[in-house]
Amino acid sequence: MANVRLEDIKRRFNNTTAIEDITFEIPDGEFWVLVGPSGCGKSTILRTIAGLESATSGKLFIGDKLVNNIPARQRDVAMVFQNYALYPHMTVAQNIAFGLQMRKTDPSTIQQRVMTVARSLSLEHLLERKPKQLSGGQQQRVALGRAIAREPQVFLLDEPLSNLDAQLRDDTRAELKQLHQELGITTIYVTHDQVEAMTLADKIVVLNGGRIQQIGDPQSIYKLPANRMVATFLGSPPMNILPGKFTGNNFDVDGQILACPPDVRERISIRDGQSVDLGIRPEHVKIINEPPRQKEESANSGLLLVEVKVVEPLGRETLIRSVLPGSMVVVNVQAGADVRPLPGDRISLELDMNHLFVFDSASGQRLYPLHL
């Protein structure tokens, strides 16, 4: 096992920069997740660590060893791909043992290692089967088993659950977390699924456009996102973003007036007429029974009039997708299971202004709150 350190890593393909200024250190034994939208550079980082891509510049360390010029087969890392990459003519046991055989490990050690790994992944009854006789979840466990059997210094997992159905993905995700707790091997996991990132990670690295946006533990990033991109990417449903303009003591949101909390005015420098993006998570929005307000009425804390577009019953709760009347600005609301407005209804929402975020509309950087 080992720590992994990246120092100012950049990767260019001809005139295109895939990643740059990538700097972080993963302590020995931790589970880190690289997350972000498609094309953000997360798989490029993983492949660079594995040695499948070469860094254009910067330094990459595994343990205390600089590995920039060390080939992939000598880096002592094990990678699990999205497509499993099992050998179809081999049995489960042979697939698990393959990496050890390539290293000319003693046969008795191989047999013992295969049985140990198979038991830990509940594969012992499948050892004589071929991959085509396995379900998707079983094939994924075999791919994991092949990596585990090698006992590498680092695990690299590239969207390993994306080919599984929803229930199997949830089950396998839980198995992965338990397996890491038992093995304690440094693990780097790539996904675009924010639920996987939140549930698996010791630390999350949020990426966009080839650059790091924020690094932190899941709860800290959720509570205090560094910018608008992070705020809207982590969270399901995502944070509501309301384009507005500061008007002295209030915010004008598409003609509706929201009171600017005194704490916001005191803590950040914001000028009259400045455009900002206001952020509020759906769990901090509730439906109230007050009649709709007229535009000219003064703000009552965080009251907002919206028009219901879609109602999605989810069993324990109802997700209501609404818009500001006459606009395309979406406002998501998490309501009780028995709340069922109809599409086209106009409803009043109360925003908990104690949980308000303010982002710079141009850069997307968080202006408020300054800290937790």
Automatic annotation (TrEMBL):
<dbReference type="GO" id="GO:0055052">
    <property type="term" value="C:ATP-binding cassette (ABC) transporter complex, substrate-binding subunit-containing"/>
</dbReference>
<dbReference type="InterPro" id="IPR003593">
    <property type="entry name" value="AAA+_ATPase"/>
</dbReference>
<dbReference type="GO" id="GO:0140359">
    <property type="term" value="F:ABC-type transporter activity"/>
</dbReference>
<protein>
    <submittedName>
        <fullName>ABC transporter ATP-binding protein</fullName>
    </submittedName>
</protein>
<dbReference type="InterPro" id="IPR015855">
    <property type="entry name" value="ABC_transpr_MalK-like"/>
</dbReference>
<keyword id="KW-0472">Membrane</keyword>
<dbReference type="Pfam" id="PF17912">
    <property type="entry name" value="OB_MalK"/>
</dbReference>
<dbReference type="Pfam" id="PF00005">
    <property type="entry name" value="ABC_tran"/>
</dbReference>
<keyword id="KW-1003">Cell membrane</keyword>
<keyword id="KW-0067">ATP-binding</keyword>
<dbReference type="GO" id="GO:0005524">
    <property type="term" value="F:ATP binding"/>
</dbReference>
<dbReference type="InterPro" id="IPR047641">
    <property type="entry name" value="ABC_transpr_MalK/UgpC-like"/>
</dbReference>
<dbReference type="InterPro" id="IPR012340">
    <property type="entry name" value="NA-bd_OB-fold"/>
</dbReference>
<keyword id="KW-0813">Transport</keyword>
<dbReference type="GO" id="GO:0008643">
    <property type="term" value="P:carbohydrate transport"/>
</dbReference>
<dbReference type="InterPro" id="IPR003439">
    <property type="entry name" value="ABC_transporter-like_ATP-bd"/>
</dbReference>
<dbReference type="InterPro" id="IPR008995">
    <property type="entry name" value="Mo/tungstate-bd_C_term_dom"/>
</dbReference>
<keyword id="KW-1278">Translocase</keyword>
<keyword id="KW-0547">Nucleotide-binding</keyword>
<dbReference type="InterPro" id="IPR040582">
    <property type="entry name" value="OB_MalK-like"/>
</dbReference>
<dbReference type="InterPro" id="IPR017871">
    <property type="entry name" value="ABC_transporter-like_CS"/>
</dbReference>
<feature type="domain" description="ABC transporter">
    <location>
        <begin position="4"/>
        <end position="234"/>
    </location>
</feature>
<dbReference type="GO" id="GO:0016887">
    <property type="term" value="F:ATP hydrolysis activity"/>
</dbReference>
<dbReference type="InterPro" id="IPR027417">
    <property type="entry name" value="P-loop_NTPase"/>
</dbReference>
